[in-house]
Design brief:
Elements (H helix, E strand, L loop, with lengths): L8 H21 L6 H8 L3 H4 L1 H24 L1 H19 L5 H15 L3 H11 L2 H32 L2 H22 L13 H13 L1 H29 L7 H7 L5 H16 L1 H18 L5 H29 L4 H30 L1 H34 L1
Helix pairs in contact: 1-5, 1-8, 1-9, 4-6, 4-16, 5-6, 5-9, 7-16, 8-9, 8-12, 8-13, 8-15, 11-15, 11-16, 11-17, 13-14, 13-15, 14-15, 14-17, 16-17
Length: 401
C-alpha cells in the first residue's frame, strides 16, 4: 500500500482525526493552567503548589507515554490512541467532582497516565503512514490541533470558572473531549505500514537505550525539554502578574489571553514549510530567537507591550516544536513510536520541572526572576542547535559509509 500524500482524501481524513486527537489531549491537559490563582484562593496553597495540577499531569503523561508507545508496537496505533482519548475524557468529567486539593491531584495524575496513549503514537503514525515530503505539513497540522485544543481548554476553563466555577468547567471540557474522541474514531484510516511485533521487553528496552545513545536524538530531546519548560513557565505565572495591581484583570480576561496560542496553528505549519525550504537548522534557530524576543517584551511594564509579547512567544514556540518533533521522526530509523515517546517524555518533563521551578523564581524575584530562568533555558537550547547540526552531519557521514 502507498503512503498518504497531500491533496488526497486519506490525507484530509487522517489530519482531521489527528487534529481532533490533539484537540482532545491538550484541551484536557492545559485546562487547569489559567486556574492557578483560583486554586491558590480556594485551597489556600502557594503559587508553586497551585502549579501542581498541571505539573503532575504532564509528568504522569511523560512516564506513561514510554509504556503506551511500547504497547502500540504490539497492539497497533489506532486502538491504543482511542482508548487513551476516551479514558481521559471520562476522567476529566470525574475531576469536576473533586472537593479537595489532594483528590484533584490524584485524578490529574491518573488523567495524565491515560493521556499518554496518544501523543507519541500519533507522531509515530504520521511518521509511518505519511509520504516523506508530506510529513512536515502533516505534523504541523497535528500540532495546530494541539494548539487549538490548548487554547480552547484554557479559555473555556477561565471563562466558565469566572461565570460559574471550575468544577463545571472541567465537566464541560470532558464532554466536548468525548465528541472529539468519536470524530477521531470515525475518520482515522487504519495503519498500512505498521507491523506488529511480539512483546519482548528486553528488545524494547534495548531499542530505547539505542535511541538515547544517538547524540542527535539526545540533543533534540533536550531542546524539547527546554522549549516547553520555557513556555509553561511563562504562561503559568503571567496570570499572577495580570490579575494583581496595577493591571487587576479579571479571570475571564486572563483566560482569553491564551487565545494567542492560535498563532501556533499558523506558525507550526509555516515554520515546517520554512524548514523544507531553508533547512531545519536555520528555521529552528529563527523560531527560538522569535520566542526569546517575545519573552523579553513581557518585561515591559506597559500592559499593551507585555501582552504583545505573548503571541510572539507562541509563534516561536509552536514553530520550534513543529520542527523538532518532525526532525525526531526523520532521524529515528527504527521503533519510531519509542523515539517519539522519548522526545515527548523529555518535552513534558520540561513542562513539569520548568513550570514548577519557575514558581520558586516567582516567589523569590518576581516576574524578572521568571523571565531570567526562561532566557537561560532558551539560550541553552540555541547552543544545542549548533551541536545538533554537527551530530547530524556525523550521522549522515556514517550512514553514507
Amino acid at each position: 500500500m502507498g503512503y498518504i500524500q497531500q491533496g488526497t482524501s486519506a490525507f484530509r481524513k487522517s489530519n482531521l482525526a489527528l487534529f481532533a486527537a490533539g484537540f482532545n489531549t491538550f484541551a484536557i491537559l492545559y485546562s487547569t493552567q489559567p486556574l492557578m490563582q483560583e486554586f491558590t484562593r480556594e485551597f489556600h496553597v502557594s503559587p508553586t503548589m497551585a502549579s501542581l495540577p498541571l505539573s503532575v499531569t504532564t509528568i504522569s503523561l511523560a512516564v506513561s507515554m514510554l509504556l503506551f508507545s511500547s504497547l502500540s508496537e504490539v497492539w497497533g496505533r489506532k486502538s491504543v490512541m482511542f482508548i487513551s482519548m476516551l479514558a481521559a475524557s471520562v476522567l476529566s468529567i470525574l475531576t469536576a467532582f473533586s472537593t479537595t486539593f489532594e483528590s484533584l491531584l490524584l485524578l490529574r495524575v491518573i488523567q495524565g497516565f491515560a493521556l499518554g496513549g496518544l501523543p507519541s503514537i500519533a507522531m509515530a503514525y504520521l511518521g509511518e503512514e505519511m509520504e516523506p515530503t508530506s510529513l512536515g505539513v502533516a505534523m504541523g497540522l497535528y500540532i495546530s490541533g494541539n494548539s487549538l485544543g490548548g487554547v480552547f481548554g484554557r479559555i473555556m476553563s477561565g471563562v466558565l470558572t469566572d461565570q460559574f466555577n471550575w468544577h463545571l468547567a472541567m465537566g464541560v471540557i470532558g464532554f466536548i473531549s468525548l465528541i472529539a474522541s468519536l470524530i477521531f474514531l470515525v475518520n482515522l484510516p487504519k495503519s498500512q505500514h505498521f507491523h506488529p511485533r511480539p512483546m519482548e521487553i528486553g528488545k524494547l528496552c534495548a531499542s530505547m537505550v539505542d535511541h538515547l545513545k544517538d547524540p542527535g536524538l539526545l540533543i533534540l530531546y533536550s531542546i524539547g525539554f527546554l522549549i516547553l519548560g520555557s513556555n509553561v513557565a511563562l504562561f503559568n505565572y503571567i496570570g499572577y502578574v495580570l490579575t494583581a495591581p496595577p493591571y487587576s484583570l479579571s479571570q475571564t480576561l486572563v483566560g482569553w489571553i491564551f487565545i494567542v496560542f492560535l498563532v501556533g496553528m499558523f506558525s507550526s505549519v509555516w515554520m515546517a514549510k520554512m524548514a523544507q525550504t531553508f533547512g531545519r537548522k536555520k528555521a529552528l534557530t529563527l523560531s527560538m530567537l522569535i520566542t526569546l524576543a517575545g519573552v523579553l517584551l513581557t518585561l515591559d511594564t506597559h500592559l499593551g507591550v507585555k501582552i504583545a509579547g505573548l503571541p510572539i512567544v507562541s509563534f516561536g514556540f509552536f514553530g520550534s516544536h513543529s520542527i523538532v518533533s518532525s526532525w525526531v521522526g526523520r532521524r529515528a530509523l527504527r521503533n519510531k513510536a519509542q523515539a517519539s515517546s522519548l522526545y515527548l517524555f523529555f518535552y513534558y518533563a520540561g513542562s513539569s520541572i520548568g513550570g514548577t521551578a519557575a514558581g520558586v523564581f516567582w516567589s523569590s524575584y518576581g516576574w524578572i526572576g521568571v523571565v531570567s530562568m526562561i532566557t537561560a533555558f532558551l539560550l541553552i537550547a540555541l547552543a544545542l542547535v549548533s551541536r545538533l547540526a554537527k551530530a547530524t552531519s556525523v550521522a549522515q557521514h556514517l550512514h553514507a559509509e
